[in-house]
Amino acid sequence: MPDPMNKAVDYAFQYIEDIPGELPAGRTKPWGTGQAVLAAKAVLKTPFVVINADDYYGKEGFRLVHECLVNGGQSCMAGFVLKNTLSDNGGVTRGICKMDDQNNLTEVVETKNIVKTVDGAETDGTAIDTESLVSMNMWGLTPEFLDMLEAGFAEFFETEVPSDPLKAEFLIPTFIGELLDEKKMTVKVLRTNDTWYGMTYKEDVEAVKESFKGMIEDGVYEKDLFGDL
């Protein structure tokens, strides 16, 4: 169906057999987010945004990433404030961003079991700065990145798949981390104050429903989701 700007919606499908090598016997697991984006390579002719389809990111992050890309930015990511991504129902894993003085990403530190406390958050008894920016897999990228991604996928098949043929995954955050280490890419971190919603625990469902109800009541969204387009 056409979108409000009268541009066609293109669909791309991720096939487990669409790989630079032989499909390992018994492999049923998809190859990860890197291959998912490569599946759309033929239709990605302009800068684009990558997100997790089952998470809610808010509006501000999309605006910031869009502005960065249309103004000539080559790659960026929305950095969510840690306190806006935590669950009331248990520990979560978050990639805490390290940046240089130009807000360019230098490292994403995967941090497990972050739980809320009375005055902030901690992991295994160590306090965590809740104002830290974290990566929730909202990336702004360009078609040029896809060439590097394709080459990285071929290398992944040569180096990673042989040792773990049934479970190895080609993940965008891991690949971007490797490019950062090799100084082959820079990623601008754009702070967003939006609340990120995911459903890590079944108990999160009701809280997410209530949050969306509140956004509709406050006029952030129409009850008919696309009614204002």
UniProtKB/TrEMBL annotation:
Entries under InterPro entries matching the protein: Nucleotide-diphossugar_trans (IPR029044)
Specify the protein name.
Nucleotidyltransferase
